[in-house]
């Protein structure tokens, strides 16, 4: 993400449930261009405006949240209570049980999984 703020760089989602809202906050280390000394996969510009929605649609799995968009996997980590930042990941990093569930639900094809196996 660029240094320019996006409307949903910090956006609460999930307020209609009894659970505390999930709040998305962008993280500069997943921005373009990379920062010196910072590591992290870069979010594609077209996915940035969808970040809060991806968080809302994500599945909690062993402390991380995973989402899918156009065959690509995204992971979110909680950096403060109920505050999350996300980034693209290869399918190699997504728990296999979750990947297989999404294939069964036809949310992910085997071709997409293979295409984005190691990279996003």
Blueprint of the fold:
Blueprint: E1 10-13, E2 22-25, H1 51-57, E3 59-61, E4 64-69, E5 72-80, E6 83-89, H2 96-104, H3 110-115
Parallel strand pairs: 2-6
Antiparallel strand pairs: 1-2, 3-4, 4-5, 5-6
Task: Please characterize this protein's 3D structure.
Helix content is 18%, strand content 28%. The protein has one domain. The protein is of the alpha+beta class. A 6-stranded mixed β-sheet has the order 1-2-6-5-4-3, covered by helices on one side. It has 3 helices and 6 strands.
Residue-averaged pLDDT: 78
Task: Provide the succession of SSEs.
Answer: EEHEEEEHH
Percentage of residues in helical conformation: 10-25%
- C-alpha end-to-end distance: 15 Å
**Strands side by side in the biggest sheet:** 1-2-6-5-4-3
Number of domains: 1
Relative strand content: 25-35%
**Helix/sheet category:** alpha+beta
Largest sheet composition: 6 strands, mixed
Can you tell me the overall shape?
A: globular
Q: What's the total helix number?
A: 3
Q: Which blocks of ≥5 consecutive residues have pLDDT under 50?
A: 1-17
Radius of gyration: 14 Å
In short:
Helix content is 18%, strand content 28%.
Could you list some keywords that capture this structure?
28% strand; disordered N terminus
């Amino acid at each position: 993400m660029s240094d320019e703020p996006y409307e949903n760089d910090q956006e609460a989602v999930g307020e209609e449930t009894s659970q505390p809202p999930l709040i998305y906050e962008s993280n500069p280390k997943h921005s373009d261009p990379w920062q010196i000394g910072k590591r992290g996969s870069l979010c594609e510009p077209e996915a940035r405006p969808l970040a809060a929605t991806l968080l809302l649609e994500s599945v909690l799995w062993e402390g991380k949240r995973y989402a899918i968009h156009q065959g690509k996997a995204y992971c979110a980590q909680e950096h403060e209570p109920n505050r999350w930042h996300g980034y693209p990941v290869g399918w190699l990093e997504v728990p296999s049980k979750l990947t297989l569930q999404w294939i069964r639900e036809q949310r992910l094809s085997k071709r997409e999984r293979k295409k984005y196996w190691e990279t996003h």
